[in-house]
């Protein structure tokens, strides 16, 4: 039993060293180690967000976890900084039947794919699968009110009192 665990840890370490070497030689734009640059055109633009990835001893069979070490307000990031994204969910079928097994972790995934997925998540949150309910609610209110505002005839946009009294919750 001990030897089996030791071999799994050794395999995980070899894989991580290979991925680390690849990431340091060919880092994707906007990612330096676990410092993630906020994507352009998002509320995170201009920010640098540190995060920690923790790898299980049976990696790559099981996914790592990812946690931002700074305060983050985002629908798919728990208040404690843990990231909620499909690629970090265990392999197999989703017990809640929300995501397909192809979206979840598999051993062919890599650290680079995780980091790129997180950058994409920052740019395009998934409000339907929220980890931070408050962030989801704010996103819903903004979208709902934006839709209402788009329905107002242009001349009414100039009447701020009309807009505030009739279209903003």
From TrEMBL:
Statement: the UniProt record of this protein carries the keyword 4Fe-4S: no
UniProt key word Nucleotide-binding: yes
Sequence ranges assigned to domain UBC core in this UniProt record: 1-159
Protein known as: UBC core domain-containing protein
Sequence similarity: Belongs to the ubiquitin-conjugating enzyme family.
Active site (catalytic residues): 84
SMART domains: UBCc
Gene3D superfamilies: Ubiquitin Conjugating Enzyme
Pfam families registered for this protein in UniProt: UQ_con
Domain of life: Eukaryota
GO MF terms, alphabetically ordered: ATP binding; transferase activity
Keywords from the named record: ATP-binding, Nucleotide-binding, Transferase, Ubl conjugation pathway
